[in-house]
Structures are given as C-alpha cells and as structure tokens.
Amino acid sequence: MSKDLERIEINQVQIGMFIKLNLSWFEHSFSMNAFKIVNQRELDELMALGLTHIDYVPSKSDVTVERVKKPELNTSSNSAATPLAETVQARSDAPSFFEDIKDAKLARAKRMEQQKQELAKVEAKFVNATNVIKDIDSLIFSKPEQVLREAGKLVDSIAEVFDEQDYTYMYLIQQTGIKEDVYFHSLNVSILAMTLAHEMRCNPTQIREVGLAGMFHDLGKINIPKKITHSREPLNKAEQNFFEMHPLYGLDIGKKAGLSKLVLHVIDNHHEFLDGSGYPKGLKGESITMPVRIVSIANVYDNLCNHIDIKHSLTPHEAISSMYLRRSSQFDRDIMTTMVKSLGIYPPGTIVQLSNGAIGLVVSINIGRSTRPNILVYDADTPKDKAIVLDLSEESEDIYICGSMRPSMLSGDMFDYLNPRERINYYAAPHKSSSTGQKDPVRK
Prior knowledge:
The chain has 444 residues and is α+β, with helices and mostly antiparallel strands. The chain has helices at residues 40-48, 94-139, 144-159, 181-199, 204-216, 226-229, 237-243, 246-257, 261-269, 290-305, 316-326, 333-343, 412-418; strands at residues 6-9, 18-20, 34-36, 53-56, 167-172, 351-354, 359-364, 374-377, 389-391, 401-405, 426-431. It is 41% helix and 11% strand.
C-alpha cells in the first residue's frame, strides 16, 4: 500500500477516492480490500458498513480531502489514530448483514479455489506436454514412429477440450523452474493454431492436423546452427539466407519421418504471407491455403510475445495490436478477427489496470467476453498464495480494464507478487459453468 495513507471521517468519502479497508475480507462485500470508489452504489455499500473513519490514498484518488490532519497509523498506546476495530458503529441488523456478506464471500472463495485447482491441473498437463516436444528433436531421426505416436497422443489430449459441449479457456502458464523455453514455442503455436481452427469450425480431423503442423512447423531448424537460430544480434545476409532454408529442411525431414501431406505443406509454407513478403517462395493471396494461414498467424504472434531477445518481446496485447493494425496486409483478416475473439483483447499474460485502480495479471479468458477476463489482482494486504482471482464476467460493469501495462512499469513488490513471465506460455482447458454445474451451451 502507498505510504501517503490518510485517515478521514466516513462522511468525507467521495466517489473517486482510493480507499483501504482495514477489515477482514469476509466483513465487507467488495472484491478487494483496497480500491477506488467508482459509483454511488459502492459508496452506499461502504456507508452501510457502519465505519466512522476510513483510510484513503490521495495519490491514487481522483479527488482528495484538503487540510486533513494525518494521524499516526501505528497502534501504540500513544497513537492518536482511531483503531478501526473501534470504528464500527452498532447497527440493529449487524448480525444478518455480516452473515450475508460472509456467505457471499465464502461462495466466491470456493470459486476462486476451484479456479486455482483447475489452473494447477492445466500447468501439470503443460509440463508433461513439453517433455513430448523435447523428444521430437532428439528422436525424429532414430525413432520417427515413436515421435509421431507421442505427438499424436499430445494433440489428441489438447483436442479433448474442443468437443461440441465445451468452450476453450486459454490459460497463462506460470511454469516456475522450467528453463527449456525453446520447446515452448512449438507447443504454443500448436495450441493457438488448434484454438483458431476450432473457432473457425474446422472438423476434428482438420483441428488435429493443424495441431500437428504447429508442433512440427520449425522441424527444419534442427539443421540450422544454434549460433544463428539463437542469435540476439541481427543476422547478416548469408546467415539470413541460411535461416530461411529451414522450411525446406523441415520438409525433407518430415517426408523421411512419414508426416502427412497437410503437415508437410504447412512446414514448407509457414513463413509465407498474403502480400507476398514471405519466404521461401514468396507466395501471395489465394495460393496460400487456410491451414498455412492459421499456423502462420499463431507463429508470428508467439514470436512477437516471446522474442529471442526478451527486451524486444511485446506484451500479448501489444502483439495482437501490432499484427492487426501494422501488418494486416500479411494476414487473413477473418483469422485475425477469430484470434481476437479467442484470446481476448487482453490475452493471458497481459498486465492490466482496472477502473477501480487495481493492478492485475490476466490469467485466463472468458470465451465470448473478450473484455472481461479472469485477473490475478495485486493486494499488498493479501498473501500471495491467497491472491484474489477476479472474474470480470461476474463483476459490476463499473469495474473494467482501463488499459495494459508493460511489466517494467510495475514496482518491485508488484512484480514479485504477480510474477509476470519472461516467456508467455499457454494451454487450453475446458470451461464449465460454475453456477449450474453444467457445461455452457454450444455456440452455433
């Protein structure tokens, strides 16, 4: 919490003030203990708590109280501050009032715990998936049948969430301690490409083939020296020409391994763009097939988010904006629109600021509500392991995302709390209705 904390009388509170409640989370109806009051309803709910004094942060407020004497905030016997424990006024309906709040908060806490458990399961699946990806490079020549079999199983496990009764959640994976970032790119591209294919109503076989194509799209880099593929400096002309051979190398390796025609076709052309600026053939327009367009978009997006040099990586929000606004001639507009719907305007991994002043990290999206994702909220007074995950789809419309932030803009405490990853990684998971226990209806 900010150091410029001031205690004021409750009747001095106004809309636009950033306030801090020194109460248990179960003793009030708000999502957080520290937030900006954005409307009259919140102000009325605050007044209903029966407090006589409250703390507010002038530097985070739109309005301030002038000439307020700042009392001491310690609890020593000589303190002039009014302890918050003594500022709750008696009220005739207090037992039922606080009991109702507690019941609502317990229900919300249960939902948050379920979300965290689901995320833990998804992360475990992601870690297992990376082990399959690692084996591709090492076994593709000696045991191609085993590689194809394991890759097929992995794609099938991802495709399970694309059945006709489930939506897809895209989760940010906080894979602490895993260092093999090079393998995440192929997995990300595969997951993103399958998500796009599903949203574009491709059939299960097409989704599976696109997933395999995403997984194997960079297969040819096996034949490119790491000093080129891992270079953080601009490549010279000879190095760039060598690098641009990797689709052809991949095609050759894939043929020997027995990959399908569609997967081979995508490997060969995944760097082609609609405006003819791609390589190795400089294909244009209708000569570029739909599977290639899908994998190409997923590939570019993940490369922008996970640049070989971290300093040049864009936030997920910036990556989508850059592709949509600055490179639109290179990509299929319908697929780009589908990606925005699938990932949301603020994809997982984006640092956001909310209208009530809170800062958080988008951890998953709500399909069909691109501006209302699930956000891990920074709260200095809440332990990190009990951090609030705010589902904006269940919150008042007065609480919304104002904009995105780069991780470098966070304070040290915020950065450690939210733990934004240097590398952005995703995984897909089924989304079931928490209110009815039934799956969401199918979108037609």
